[in-house]
Amino acid sequence: MILSTGRQENIMKPLSFEERLEKLESQIAFQDKSIEELELIVTENRNTIDKLQKQLHLLGERLQETSILAAVSEEAPPPHY
């Protein structure tokens, strides 16, 4: 049983059905707002992760190109040098 304390009374009395319902509705509204905020954060994080994955892919390609160029430049010069 949910109990509340009255401001002017020191005795505890049970909450009425309407008070319990109002409290539950308030909690649900708070949870709905929290869920919406978390969904926005998750969406922002997903977008950030996508951008970072693209950048990582591009950096990997550049590294491979650099490695290939370095390997070619390390080859012995042609015989006419």
UniProtKB/TrEMBL annotation:
Record protein name field: Protein SlyX
InterPro entries: SlyX
Coiled-coil annotated spans: 21-55
Family, similarity comment: Belongs to the SlyX family.
Keyword GTP-binding appears in the UniProt entry: no
Keywords: Coiled coil
Tagged with keyword Coiled coil: yes
Membrane-traversing stretches: none
